[in-house]
Structures are given as structure tokens and as C-alpha cells.
């Protein structure tokens, strides 16, 4: 029986998820197809999922909170994050997961970091902060405006406004979760602050993928080990793949290796 999967978002034309999943199905000889669906109203997510008879889906910007609210059961760290990027249909119920968090952690787990600074306080920062906290990594947040920091303050994170921040401690890992550098040449906070931070850090990670952002470019000047968001994208997809097709008993690492080859 052919199984159907899809990614929902707006915009969605640029998404690499269909390529990653379909090429992996083809490689493994699995009878499945993964499409992309442009959604204009998040409230219609569940109706669309059910009417397309999907076995599973990924949900991306700006519908992850809808995916959290509309599924029948929220599983794992998605409960704390308040956002789901993966839905799986199980016995006529929809289970919601967040594989962004674990996907990010897979990328940095071998670094052995003890402290991290996250720049940005949006949806992806929630996933990154909560998975770091789950692994006992002391995490501080920096954002240009106050409102989105409240989520993190309420959960006990050290939070600062970029304008009011002065570097006192040091951070092993610095993560850009903002969209600064995505379609422009901006840094996520002042160059002066970043220089002070990079001077004492070991690793820089930018969630943006496919380009060397000004953030990563500056980090390279300080000889930090730098990563863009490509591996996070691959791991979140591999973890979703594993949830979609559990009977295959594949390891996420093996799926990720396959997907990495596809992307190259
Ligand atoms: P959100 O819109 O939820 O949050 C964006 C955050 O970035 C906010 O805190 C915002 O600050 C801040 N911000 C935006 N522009 C600037 C700027 N010019 N300077 C400083 N701060 C800025 O976005 P997401 O968290 O969902 O996504 C953020 C990025 O992460 C995107 O580029 C996305 O593509 C990438 N991403 C990559 C993934 C991967 O697998 N590699 C997975 C998920 C996301 P404010 O609160 O003041 O508005």
C-alpha cells in the first residue's frame, strides 16, 4: 500500500523535505510519496491532513503552534516547547512531536559544551533552549526585543536584551537562531558584543543553512568551530522519518547519512 506524507508551511516551495524523504524512500524501495502543501490558514491543518489521508506530516513556519494545538496527543519535548513540527497518524489519532530539538542536539552532542548563549527568542530558540536545558547545559538568551523573552524568563533561563547586554561570563557555544543573515547581511546583535563573546567561545552554530552568514563569517575570524543549520535540517528530517516508518527499525544516524548524500 502506498503511503502519503507531506510538509505544510507558508511559504513552502523552497522546502527541501520532499527531496530528502522521497530520495530516501526510493533508495530503500519504500512505497511512499512525500509532497508539499501550501496552507493559508493554520486552523485548517487537521482538516487538510485528514482529507489527504496522510500517514504523517512535517509542519514548518508559521504553523508549528497550530500543529501543537490541533493534534490529539503531544509527545516528548514538544509538550514543553509548545510547538510540533511532526505529526504521525496512529490508530486514527494524530500524535505530535518536535524533532527540531533533538535534531539540533544531535549536531552538538559530541562538543562536550557546558554553557551556551542563544541569540534570538523565537520558535526555534524554544526548541534549542529546552533541549540544552534537558542536557544540563547552562543556557543564556539574548534578544533584540522583550516580548518573546518572557517564555524563557518564566522557565528560569537567564535572559537579556541585546542593547543592555555586557559580556561578563563566557559561553562555550554561541547559537544564532534569528533570521538575521538569511536574506540580508545583518549580524543578530552588535559586532562589538559578538567579538567579546567569540573571543572566549569554542563553537558557533547558525540555524540558517546554505550560506556563510555574517555571524559565521565573524566566528571564523576567531577560529571557532562553525556549523550552519544543514545538519540540523537533516537530523530533524531523519528523526521524523523514523517516527513515520517505525516498522523499518532504522537508526536515525543511518537515515541522516542517506539524506546527507542526497543533499550533496
Ligand atoms: P521566529 O520568527 O519565531 O523568531 C525570529 C527571532 O529572530 C526573533 O527572536 C526575532 O526577534 C529575531 N530576529 C529576526 N530578525 C532579526 C534581526 N535582523 N536582528 C536581530 N534579531 C532578529 O523564527 P524561527 O525561530 O522559527 O526561525 C529563525 C531562523 O531559524 C530562520 O532563519 C529559520 O530558517 C531557521 N531555522 C532553521 C532550522 C533548521 O533545521 N536548520 C529549523 C528551524 C528554523 P524579535 O523577537 O525582536 O522579533
Structure write-up:
The protein folds into 2 domains: 3-97 and 231-263, Leucine Dehydrogenase, chain A, domain 1 (Rossmann fold, 3-Layer(aba) Sandwich); 102-227, Rossmann fold, CATH 3.40.50. The model has no long low-confidence stretch (mean pLDDT 96). The strands form 2 sheets. Strands 2-1-3-5-6-4 form a 6-stranded mixed β-sheet. It is 38% helix and 21% strand. With 264 residues, it is an alpha/beta fold. NADPH dihydro-nicotinamide-adenine-dinucleotide phosphate (NDP) binds next to helix 6 and helix 10. Involved in the biosynthesis of the chorismate, which leads to the biosynthesis of aromatic amino acids. Catalyzes the reversible NADPH linked reduction of 3-dehydroshikimate (DHSA) to yield shikimate (SA).
Brief descriptors of the model:
single chain, 264 residues, alpha/beta, Rossmann fold, 2 domains, six-stranded mixed beta sheet, six-stranded parallel beta sheet, 12 strands, 38% helix, 21% strand, globular, binds NADPH dihydro-nicotinamide-adenine-dinucleotide phosphate
Amino acid at each position: 500500500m502506498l503511503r502519503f506524507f507531506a510538509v505544510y508551511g507558508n511559504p513552502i516551495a523552497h522546502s527541501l523535505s520532499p527531496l530528502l524523504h522521497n530520495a530516501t524512500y526510493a533508495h530503500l524501495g519504500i512505497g511512499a510519496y512525500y509532497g508539499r502543501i501550501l496552507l493559508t490558514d493554520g486552523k485548517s491543518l487537521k482538516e487538510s491532513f485528514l482529507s489527504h489521508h496522510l500517514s504523517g506530516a512535517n509542519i514548518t513556519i508559521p504553523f508549528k503552534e497550530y500543529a501543537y494545538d490541533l493534534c490529539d496527543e503531544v509527545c516528548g519535548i514538544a509538550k514543553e516547547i509548545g510547538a510540533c513540527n511532526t505529526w504521525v497518524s496512529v490508530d486514527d489519532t494524530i500524535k505530535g512531536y518536535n524533532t527540531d530539538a533533538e535534531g539540533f542536539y544531535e549536531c552538538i552532542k559530541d562538543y562536550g559544551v557546558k554553557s551556551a548563549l542563544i541569540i534570538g527568542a523565537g520558535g526555534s530558540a524554544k526548541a534549542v533552549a529546552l533541549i540544552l536545558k534537558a542536557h544540563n547545559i547552562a543556557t543564556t538568551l539574548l534578544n533584540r526585543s522583550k516580548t518573546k523573552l518572557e517564555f524563557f524568563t518564566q522557565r528560569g533561563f537567564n535572559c537579556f536584551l541585546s542593547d543592555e547586554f555586557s559580556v561578563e561570563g563566557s559561553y562555550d557555544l554561541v547559537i544564532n537562531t534569528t533570521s538575521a543573515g538569511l536574506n540580508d547581511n545583518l549580524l543578530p546583535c552588535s559586532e562589538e558584543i559578538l567579538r567579546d563573546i567569540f573571543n572566549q567561545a569554542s563553537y558557533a552554530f547558525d540555524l540558517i543553512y546554505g550560506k556563510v552568514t555574517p555571524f559565521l563569517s565573524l566566528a571564523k575570524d576567531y577560529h571557532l568551530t562553525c556549523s550552519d543549520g544543514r545538519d540540523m535540517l537533516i537530523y530533524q528530517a531523519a528523526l521524523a522519518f523514523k517516527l513515520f516508518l517505525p516498522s523499518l527499525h532504522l537508526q536515525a544516524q543511518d537515515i541522516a547519512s542517506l539524506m546527507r548524500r542526497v543533499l550533496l
